[in-house]
Amino acid sequence: MTILKNRKGFTIIELFVTLALLGILLAIALPRISVPAGWKLEGAARKLAVDLRLARNESVTSGKICQVKFFVYSQLYQLTLAEEKQLVKLPEGIAFQGTTTFEKDPANNPYVNFNALGHPSRGGTVILKSEQGDKRYIIVTPVTGRVRISTTPPQNW
């Protein structure tokens, strides 16, 4: 039996030890990696816009009034469809900065109703803000009910 003097390569034990160390490092590092705040803000704005569009579409298909009500200080909004209510919490680090021109209930919570034609009770803007100060404006157009997201406030503000 000949002993190889110039062995090249690694033993299986060396490979397993290296993989175990990499696994431990990843287990420590991954929880500390967070979703960038811009993605979180954009995701929250898109979710709210989708829910506003859902309320509008549901009101047209059901023929019943659907509502989205904003609880600005609680960082929640309530989606009231023809047959159900959903309470939605904004993601951590995202907050309502306010709303404009929407109607308000007796408790001073802004809301928008969509009628059977999909028209909003009143147009307005919801402002979402991240901890870093970035903002997204979710704009409900009066009369048509079109919902869009913008990085700048609407004109004639």
Written description of the protein model:
The protein has two helices and nine strands, in the order ααβββββββββ. The protein has helices at 12-29, 37-62; strands at 66-71, 76-80, 85-89, 94-100, 103-104, 110-114, 124-130, 135-140, 147-150. With 157 residues, the chain is an alpha+beta fold.
Provide key terms for this protein.
157 residues, alpha+beta, minor pseudopilin epsh fold, five-stranded antiparallel sheet, 2 helices, 30% strand
CATH homologous superfamily - what is it? minor pseudopilin epsh domain
Q: What is the CA-atom radius of gyration, in angstroms?
A: 25 Å
Task: List low-confidence stretches.
Answer: none
Helix segment tally:
2
Give the averaged pLDDT, no decimals.
Answer: 90
CATH top level is: Alpha Beta
* Principal-axes shape call: elongated
CATH architecture: 3-Layer(bab) Sandwich
Question: Element order, helices and strands?
Answer: HHEEEEEEEEE
> How many discrete domains?
1
Percentage of β-strand residues? 25-35%
What name does the CATH topology carry? Answer: minor pseudopilin epsh fold
Number of strands: 9
- With strands numbered from the N-terminus, the spatial order across the biggest sheet is 3-2-1-6-5
Question: How would you summarize this macromolecular structure in one to three sentences?
Answer:
The protein has 157 residues and is α+β, with helices and mostly antiparallel strands.
Strand and helix layout:
Layout: H1 12-29, H2 37-62, E1 66-71, E2 76-80, E3 85-89, E4 94-100, E5 103-104, E6 110-114, E7 124-130, E8 135-140, E9 147-150
